[in-house]
Design a protein that fits this description.
single chain, five-stranded mixed β-sheet, binds zinc ion, about 350 residues, alpha/beta, 10 helices
Length: about 350
């Protein structure tokens, strides 16, 4: 390892924790740290922590003989990347926080601010499961659903910093109401949270009507079931779980088919908690997506490869781009998931 090598400082700020790293221009991570966000303290305290942690990382880099050349910070919510402003975040409480300028003032290094899902998509497209593809759609499925469209290693931001809200494509006009206020958004039907809710709802309904219910419904406990448990039970052949899972798969396929009609990508990378279901999700989803393709070219559908490191690596990529350093084309290749 080059003792005087350049590194960037990368922070991925979430509602509960911050994943932080020092990353070389070739994408190799030389140091990692995690810190609590403790968002309940309010946005001003969170901003102080972000700047303190970034300063500490830069000091660690210098102490280890590296030269910190730029900072990349990823945050959730609406992010104006061009102005470097965290416009809005429900999780962290940001309202028009000029994080980039604050970091430049504190550390004196070029700083890039990015959106957590967009930088995660950037990392998957350039270093992870989408590596080698010029047109990638990264879809993160967790509590919500959001996407990043990455073309030639650059994620589209949109005119207002809000591109990629694939979770709010309407897929079921008569479906459950979404957190955004409209009925039947993809996120209200197929997010991990929605799958757990739907299963609990149907299981409770089954018990309420026990006289006429099926034996499977009688055995089913719906209380506080996570999407991962629904996936397990579906794989084990439980009829109610299989039904709920297939409903979610069909809705996801509708959303992805719309995404493919809009973007014509070669590769769709699925990330977020739900993608950990692996082939239990990818298998039926490939089938359902295939059924929806008419004249469109069918994209390759793969699971994300970088796990919860993706946001931090993506923040590092933004920082490298901001510093005018982009050597990651020759970077490490993480283990790829099985491709179809
Ligand atoms: Zn919505």
């Amino acid at each position: 390892m080059s003792a005087s090598g350049r590194v960037v400082v990368a922070l991925d700020v979430g509602g509960t924790g911050m994943k932080c790293a020092l990353v070389r221009p070739d994408g190799v991570v030389v140091h990692t740290e995690r810190h609590p966000t403790d968002a309940a303290r309010g946005p001003a305290a969170v901003v102080d922590t972000i700047l303190d942690v970034a300063e500490g990382l830069a000091a660690t880099a210098r102490a280890d003989g590296h030269t910190p050349v730029a900072i990349g910070i990823a945050v959730p919510g609406v992010v104006d990347e061009a102005r470097g402003v965290a416009v809005w975040s429900a999780n962290v409480g940001f309202r028009d926080v000029p994080l980039r300028d604050l970091a430049v003032a504190r550390l004196g290094l070029p700083t890039a601010l990015g959106h957590d899902v967009r930088v995660g998509g950037l990392a998957e497209a350039r270093l992870g499961a989408g590596r080698g593809a010029d047109h990638v759609l990264f879809v993160a499925i967790g509590t919500g659903i959001a996407a990043a469209h990455v073309v030639d290693g650059v994620a589209g931001v949109g005119a207002h910093g809000a591109a990629g809200e694939i979770g709010h494509i309407m897929v079921r006009p008569d479906g459950p109401r979404c957190g955004c206020g409209r009925p039947g958004c993809l996120e209200a039907v197929a997010s991990a949270a929605a799958i757990g809710r739907r299963y609990a709802e149907l299981a409770d309904h089954g018990r309420a009507g026990a006289a006429s219910s099926t034996p499977a419904a009688e055995q089913t406990s719906g209380a506080a079931v996570t999407a991962a448990v629904v996936a397990e039970r579906a794989a084990a052949g439980e009829p109610l779980a299989a039904r709920v899972w297939q409903e979610a798969v069909d809705a996801l396929a509708d959303g992805l088919a719309t995404g493919q009609a809009l973007f014509d990508v070669s590769t769709i990378v699925l990330g977020g908690g739900l993608a950990q279901a692996g082939d239990g999700l990818l298998g039926p989803l490939r089938t359902a997506l295939h059924e929806r393709m008419t004249f469109h070219r069918e994209p390759r559908l793969v699971a994300a490869a970088l796990g919860d490191e993706a946001g931090c690596l993506g923040a590092a990529l933004l920082a490298l781009d901001a510093a005018g350093v982009r050597d990651t084309d020759a970077a490490r290749v993480p283990d790829h998931q099985e491709e179809r």
